[in-house]
């Protein structure tokens, strides 16, 4: 399966007085007291996933196809990742 990362497809849901963000099909989720805090946490989760992928997940069958996400994460700064996550919703 080849993934296209032109759209994040991130979903944000209010939960327990805060926000949770996840990207369907990816092993990533983040929580925050505010929407902006949750987005910041998700940017951190993307960075951590990219590091883990390059370190040891790249050969795992359930992570192998996420190389595009890892490359994009590596090439973008935090503001670009935030924009990718929220799109025009803000």
UniProtKB/TrEMBL annotation:
Q: Which InterPro entries match?
A: TTHA1013/TTHA0281-like
> Which Gene3D superfamilies does this entry report, sorted A to Z?
3.30.160.620
What domain of life does the UniProt record list for this protein's source? Bacteria
UniProt-recorded name of the protein: Type II toxin-antitoxin system HicB family antitoxin
């Amino acid at each position: 399966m080849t993934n296209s990362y032109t759209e994040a497809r991130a979903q944000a849901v209010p939960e327990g007085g805060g926000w949770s963000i996840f990207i369907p099909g990816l092993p990533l989720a983040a929580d925050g007291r505010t929407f902006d805090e949750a987005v910041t946490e998700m940017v951190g989760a993307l960075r951590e996933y990219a590091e883990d992928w390059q370190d040891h997940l790249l050969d795992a069958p359930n992570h192998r196809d996420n190389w595009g996400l890892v490359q994009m994460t590596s090439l973008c700064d935090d503001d670009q990742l935030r924009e990718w996550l929220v799109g025009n919703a803000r």
